[in-house]
Structure formats: structure tokens, C-alpha cells
Model the fold of this input.
Amino acid sequence: MSQSPNVIVVTAANFQSVVIDGSFERPVLVDFWADWCAPCRMLMPMLAHLAEDYGGKFLLAKVNTEEEQALAAQFGIRSLPTVQLFREGKAVDEFMGALPEPQVREFLDRHIPRLSNSLLTQAQSLMASGDLAAARELLEQAKAEDPNNSKLALAEVQLTAARGDTTKALAELDSLPLDLVNDPEVAALRGQLRFASTAAEAASESDLQARLEADPKDSQARYQLAAIDVLRGDYASALEQLLELMKRDRAFEDDAGRKGMLAIFDMLDSSDELAARYRAKMMNALY
Done:
């Protein structure tokens, strides 16, 4: 059992003082578990790691439901593991099952503000406005404040991309921490960088248009035009070009039309009407 001051075993005898009263001082994450529950055993070490990683910004309280059945019943625990977050004397949020670490961090960050995340948001705003030097200073400050915040690694890739070094940014993406591999922002940035790389090697837009008018089967010209459309934010035109490419030439650069459409979907909000419309068009063309 961990000897950390940020992880404690809770029973009916100390639940009031540790969880209820303690949650007025800092958030308390209560892990309801049982020894027979395999997902519980998977989740526990990760929660303990996060309790340390967050530097005491929350307390991890562990409740063995086999020994504390009354507590489990009191808080309506029907499946294991169930994790509840207490603030100011009451449960304010919960999740069930052994979620991956990025999702647990997202859960925690909704309730436990991190200064580094605030600095990160400011840095990204500065990148968007073109003040890359100031953005770099804020990222360095955030790293000094919270070196274990994995989101900072992605922000550094974004800064490299903002400087125009697409090749280096793509290499940095491949070196990101494992907990960011499936992050939607990573997928979106990877797509943007690949389109930027394609556009950088392309002829002028007018030359590409002329090539395509002369030969509608010119897959390279069509793909490069789509990349240029992406860079200027004209996703509708890019998707239309890529859809046509997918219909005409699935063999071009290993199905670049379909993969390009998927990359744009990653860049758009999941509820975006344009993405929904072109997903349907893509599926109709495929099947």
C-alpha cells in the first residue's frame, strides 16, 4: 500500500473526516474497488501515479467495497471500479471502468485547474497572433511550473509548426509521449502538417488548375490543390477534390484521397455539418 500523503485507505470510520470534510480543502477522488475486480487492479496504480503527478492537488481515497459494503451502498455503487470526485462535501462527478490515463486526466482537469494549462492557453493564443517569442517564454514558464503536463509537448510541436519547420514538427509528433498518441489534437496537427508539406512542394495554384483542366486524371495536381485549400481553411473545396480523387484513383499514394478526407475530419469538430456531409459522401462512394 502506498505511503504517499496523497493516497489514503478510507473506511466507514474515517470517511467523514477524510472525504467529506477533507473535500472542503482540496478535491478528493474516491476509488471504489474490490480485490476480485481485474479492471480495479489495472486502474489503481495509474490513479496513484496521478495523485503524485498532480503534486497533492487532489487526495486519492481508496474504498475496498468488500470490506466497506455499507459505504458502497450509501453512494450507490453498482459496478466496479467506480470513481467519484468530491468537492465541498459532496460527489460532483464520477466515472466507471478502467479509463485510459488521458481520459482520467481530462476528468481531473475539469475540476482541478492547473496553472500550466492556463499558461498553455495563453501561449496558443500568442501563436495564433504570430507572437512566437512570447509564446515560447510562456511554454518555458509552464514547463518549469508543471514539467509532467504532457500537453506541453504537443504545444512545443505546434510552436515548431508555427515557425514553418514542417519536417521537424512531424518528427517531433512521432516522439510525443504515449499518452498523447490517440489525442484528437495530435491527429489534427499531423494532418495539417502533411498537407502543409504537400503544398510546399506544389506548383502555383494557377498552374495546378491548368494541369487539372487539361487532364482531369492528374491525381497529383488534384491532391496538391486540396492541400492548398486546406492551408487557407477552405475545407469544403479540399474535401470535394479529395472525394473526386478517391473516386478516380484509389491507388494514388496509397489511397491518399480517402486518407486525406479522414485527416480533414480530424481537423473539424465531430459535430461539424461539413464533416458529417462528406463522411456520408465518402461512405456512399466506397460502398
Summary: The longest helix spans residues 184-200.
